[in-house]
Amino acid sequence: MGIKIFITGGTIDKQYSTRNNGSFVFEKSHVPQMVKQARISADVALETVMLKDSLYMTEEDRKQILERCETSEEDKIIVTHGTDTMVETAKVIGKNLKNKTVLLLGALIPYTLGNSDALFNLGAAMAAVQLLPHGVYITMNGKIFTWNNVRKNKQLEEFEELS
User: Fold this and answer.
1) pTM over 0.90
2) Rounded CA gap, 104 and 137, in Å?
3) pLDDT at position 114, please?
């Protein structure tokens, strides 16, 4: 059994748009390109659930992500997600899902821009999902956190343990 990657949006998949006054928008997911660029040779199945800024995610969106994780044949799952509400989604999954390993990751800089952390974070998630025991985790910038002991420090723009 391989690894399932659920794509949900977030900065990782945003790109600069000259058509929308220089704003960042979703046109398509860049995760397939990232998997190819990183030369990931593991058995990976990609599925786009949504392309949404996590600030606009609803409880229904989180339930949809949970449902996809629950019904996935794979027990190793990666979820790409916006960083602003990643912790909230991890809590929904962590409180309800057992017997699978789920890693949530995002990026602080879009993949399409230079100097992005997206590719590194995907690589960390790929390694971690294969090594960690069942549970729900967030991985960002070389660190791994359990779903119930993490927060985003918005001043420092990084994730940190609660205790």
Assistant:
1) yes
2) 6
3) 81
